[in-house]
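Example 3.2
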Amino acid sequence: MTRAVAIRLGAFAGAVALAFAGAFAIGSAVDPIAAANPAPSGEHADGDAGGMSGMPEGKTGETGETGEGHEAGGAHESGHSASDTQPPGLAVSQSGYTLAPKSTFFQPGKPQQLAFTIQGPDGKPVTQYTATHEKDLHLIVVRRDLSGFHHVHPTRAADGTWSIPFTFTAGGQWRIFTDFQPTALGKTITLGADVNVSGLYIPVPLNEPASVYSVDGYAITLAGTPVAGKESELTFSVSKAGKPVTDLQPYLGAFGHLVSLRGGDLAYLHTHPSKEAKAGMTGGPGIIFGTTFPTAGTYSLFLDFQHAGKVRTAEFTVNVGTDGTAIVPPSELPGAAEESPHGHG
C-alpha cells in the first residue's frame, strides 16, 4: 500500500475499527526492506538488545562491546549479540524479559498515565536496574507513521511499575520502546509494544530527505554517508541566527542523543557520542555519531540536544543504501538553496 493510498483510506474511514486497520496496514507496508551484507567481523549489524552506539568526536572507532563501558576511541553499541540477527525493538519479549503495558487503549488529547512493568525471567516485575546514560530506563513513544516522537523518562514505584503522565496527540496505533539494562542481565536491551489510541487515523507523510531541519530558531544540518551493514559517521551541526552554537549543554551525559527508526517495522537504534559530557562542559556546534544501519531502507532520525536549558528535537528522513550516498549540507553546495522542513506532526 502506498502512503498516498493510506492517506485516502484514513480520511475516508468513519469508524474506529477501520481507523485501526489503516494504522496496522501502514505499520507493515510502508517501506520495503532490502537485506544488506552482514557486518564485517568486529562490527554489530544486529542486536539481542538495545542499539546504543557512539564514537569520539572527530574520528570513527571500532565497535565496542556491550554495556556502559567501552574502550577509549571505540564506538559504543551496547547489548549486541552476534548470534541474534534481529534489530532491537521489534520484540515485546527478549532474553527472558517482557514489556507488559498496564493498558493498551488510550484516548487522544487527554493526559493519562502510561504505565508498564518489565517482567523478568521469574515472571515478576524487575526492580533492579543499572543506569545507562544517567537513567534506569529510557522510554520512546512514537506513532506508527513516525509522527509524534517523544523521548521521556518515567518513574518507577517500589513494586517495579513504571509510569508517566502522557498525552497522545492523535488517534491510531503507537509504538512504545523501553531501553534499559537489568542488573541481573548485565547488558542493555530494547523491548517494544504497540498501544491503541481511539479516533480517526489519518497518516502524516514523512518529511522528504533533507540535510537541514529548523526548530525554535535553530538550524541543524546533517552530513555523512550512511551505508547499510557498515558503521557510518553522521555529523549534526547546530546553529542559531546564522551563528554556530558552541555552548551546547550536557543532556543525560552527552551533547546529543540519536534515535533511528526503520520505516515499515520501526526497528530501533539508539545512538550516543562516546565522548561523555559532564556538568560544566559545553559542546558544539558539531555532534558526531558512529552508527550501523542494519539494512537498506528509509530511516527516520530523531536528534535530541540541549541548549539554553531546553531540550529540542530535530527530525530527518534518510535513505540508506548498500553502496552509500553522501548527505551534503547546503553550506557545501555554493549557490544551492534547500528548504528546511519544520516538523512532521
